[in-house]
Amino acid sequence: MHFVAQPGGCEIGLRPIDLHIKGLMALGAKLDEGMAELTCEHGLIGGEVHLDYPSVGATENIMMAAVLAKGTTTIHNAAREPEIVDLMNFINAMGGRVRGAGSSNIVVEGVSRLQGVEYQVIPDRIVAGTYMAAAAITGGDVLLENVVYEHVFAIAAKLRDTGCRVERAGRTLRVSGLARPRAVNRLETLPYPGFPTDMQAQLMSVLCVADGTSIVVENVFENRFKHAAELNRMGADITIKDRLALVRGVSRLSGTTVCARDLRAGAALVLAGLRAEGETTVEGVHYIDRGYERLVEDLRTLGADIRRI
Ligand SMILES: CC(=O)N[C@H]1[C@@H](OP(=O)(O)OP(=O)(O)OC[C@H]2O[C@@H](n3ccc(=O)[nH]c3=O)[C@H](O)[C@@H]2O)O[C@H](CO)[C@@H](O)[C@@H]1O
Ligand SMILES: C=C(OP(=O)(O)O)C(=O)O
């Protein structure tokens, strides 16, 4: 019997785990009392899983469960995020037999054992995207190394719509922003290769100071606009209605004390602080630490006046 801790993560919606559980049950696990207690007496057996939604975590969880299961598992309507492909490559480097990651159908043939391996994970596309947004909101010029362009394509495309120049040379990306970004018609988050929900808050900061009005639609998580109220405290003009945000661009933001209520909201507020007049204090830095190793140091290297207190 294995006990799994209650799932955590940022509070950006209810974040149910029904798809994880349904997938594991298709491989022979039995659900006992509670939501996170599953048992399996004689090991998992490969099976067919259809995900009602291409959940990243459920795809990863089922893939990993299937690696040492007996027989073959197929995951239909799997998530296609680059991290899923990375996980496949990692498992295969350990001796697993996974194919199809990056497409909607993943096939895992169970093996009896895995071996240790040294493996380098892919560069963090959301960290890269955040620094791209920093160039956009400040009208700055940022050179990013070790970026997989295909992974940030949707972000680059949207930043180009705001007037940014994004130039690529191999794994290097140069992003230069306009003095004032342009509004976009519509920014809509979607599973990969759509625009990532983990960049929605940062782009909203950029659109806050854009010339014109933008519409942002959050399709992935049902409660991921907590940054909007904080941005409004800095002088932004955002109205929320369910999953839609109407962002009327303002010509200036003013620094004040604001509170990060989740990871990307924190990044978004730091970006807004770069543009705002006066001093901005962002509370709730522990959220930001979940997703950025060197945010303060990197931004300072780029010329920002920022410090951690
Ligand atoms: C640690 C990690 O990698 N986190 C990422 C992962 O989160 P995570 O894996 O939690 O995100 P999911 O793709 O599972 O969630 C997407 C949607 O599916 C719903 N859902 C999910 C599972 C489930 O069993 N039932 C269900 O209804 C969620 O409520 C949400 O509305 O992908 C998200 C979407 O790209 C990112 O924002 C997160 O940064
Ligand atoms: C929502 C995020 O992460 P988690 O799934 O860990 O909460 C994120 O990285 O923006």
TrEMBL record:
Q: Which residues form the Enolpyruvate transferase domain?
A: 4-299
Where does the UniProt annotation locate this protein? Cytoplasm
What keyword terms does UniProt attach to this protein?
Cell cycle, Cell division, Cell shape, Cell wall biogenesis/degradation, Cytoplasm, Peptidoglycan synthesis, Transferase
* InterPro entries reported for this sequence: Enolpyruvate_Tfrase_dom, Enolpyruvate_Tfrase_sf, MurA_subfamily, RNA3'P_cycl/enolpyr_Trfase_a/b, UDP_GlcNAc_COvinyl_MurA
Q: Which reaction does it catalyse?
A: phosphoenolpyruvate + UDP-N-acetyl-alpha-D-glucosamine = UDP-N-acetyl-3-O-(1-carboxyvinyl)-alpha-D-glucosamine + phosphate
Pfam families assigned to the protein according to its UniProt record, in alphabetical order: EPSP_synthase (PF00275)
Q: List, in alphabetical order, the Gene Ontology terms for molecular function in this entry.
A: UDP-N-acetylglucosamine 1-carboxyvinyltransferase activity
Q: Give GO BP annotations, semicolon-separated.
A: cell division; cell wall organization; peptidoglycan biosynthetic process; regulation of cell shape; UDP-N-acetylgalactosamine biosynthetic process
Q: Does the keyword Membrane apply?
A: no
Question: What's the family?
Answer: Belongs to the EPSP synthase family. MurA subfamily.
Q: Return the protein name.
A: UDP-N-acetylglucosamine 1-carboxyvinyltransferase
Q: Which organism is it from?
A: Gehongia tenuis
- What is the gene name? murA
